[in-house]
Amino acid sequence: MEIAIVLFDGFTGLDAIGPYEVLSRVPDATVTFVASTPGLVRADTGRLAVQVDVALADLPAPQVLLVPGGPGQVAAMTDQVLIDWVRAAHRTSTWTTSVCTGSMILAAAGVLDGRRATSHWLALDRLPEFGAEQTLERVVFDGKVVTAAGVSAGIDMALRLAAFIAGDEVAQGIQLMLEYDPQPPFDAGSPTKAPDAIVAKLRSRSRFLRSG
Amino acid sequence: MEIAIVLFDGFTGLDAIGPYEVLSRVPDATVTFVASTPGLVRADTGRLAVQVDVALADLPAPQVLLVPGGPGQVAAMTDQVLIDWVRAAHRTSTWTTSVCTGSMILAAAGVLDGRRATSHWLALDRLPEFGAEQTLERVVFDGKVVTAAGVSAGIDMALRLAAFIAGDEVAQGIQLMLEYDPQPPFDAGSPTKAPDAIVAKLRSRSRFLRSG
């Protein structure tokens, strides 16, 4: 099983590496990072660069495609090579997936038309502009299209995918190898749980997410 | 504040990228990936390569140093440049930290002598060989030395560090930006919670972790 993770400049590192870490451990699956142009792809912080050896054109029909988000998503939505690849790969995929604002890229490719989907909470209300039905769930399955909420939600999505692909026992084994027994020090991981002042502050700073 | 994340061939991607994603968002902090030899550093799967531009020698005294784990930790423990760097950097650090079997590298540098520490659950019982006191907690603070359990535990550790460095509100804001409201599909993330058969199967396969 070929699993392609699409990178682009300005992606958010954990959006991609969380699912990579889970899906790499699915038996008989190969995870490949792909990009419009092979070479170093730099994450949104400017402090992380991942080497991509495979062009989108060289992996046209993966069984699973996964699109991360990040501030670079705005530019990626206008990368016609990337959008055309997503649209074409989705036709033959078993699972078409995104993390965070990667769902905006799926939307730009028409993948979310008429589907329930999620995104980073700060970008969620833009999904209807692309014909999708927004929902504040952490992981949303709609047929073969699976979208995850912001950044860390990709780990939960990938474990659920691993269970669909290889069974619950395999997924539990992966969870145990990654010692994924989360104990966040605060209960502030969702806009419905974080203090109102912190939610408001992040909303006021988030205009970059809305410029796409 | 300089935060150095030490990479070596065979590191586990999420060990490093989880904390990177959290700590990059601490105000006035800079996260830098460092390695014995700059260049592409390949993760344990062989499918992820991170470009490292800064040699250990060029960042001798970060305020925070973080050592991830992974199968490559066995070879890293014999990399004298790396071990000497950890020992020296620890003398002047504010926080000396590890994720997963990265604690074995701290141990090899003498950092854990007489301290409480944790590691990946499959490697935990090796810590006493290095003079450390093992504990199956997810994140262990002992003075300025902080160790996290396997792989995903680095995210929880980094959020706690962010709170110490920049305050609870900043850490909560980071948690919200990363939408870290974990909802794992199974409760199998620790050897005390996973089904016995899965724990036993992973133990039987884990001899590589014990060869160092």
Structure described in brief:
The first copy, chain A, is of the alpha/beta class. Chain A is 33% helix and 20% strand.
How would you characterize this protein structure?
The structure is a homodimer of 212-residue chains. Chain A has 212 residues and is an alpha/beta fold. Chain A has one domain: Class I glutamine amidotransferase (GATase) domain (Rossmann fold). Chain A has a 7-stranded mixed sheet, sandwiched between helices. In chain A, strands 3-4 form a two-stranded antiparallel sheet. In chain A, helix 1 runs parallel beside helix 5 and helix 5 runs antiparallel to helix 6. The longest helix of chain A is centred in the last third of the chain and has 14 residues. Chain A is globular and about 45 Å long. Chain A starts with a strand and ends in a 7-residue tail after the last helix. The mean pLDDT of chain A is 95. Chains A and B meet through helix 1, strand 2, strand 4, helix 5 and helix 6 of A and helix 1, strand 2, strand 4, helix 5 and helix 6 of B.
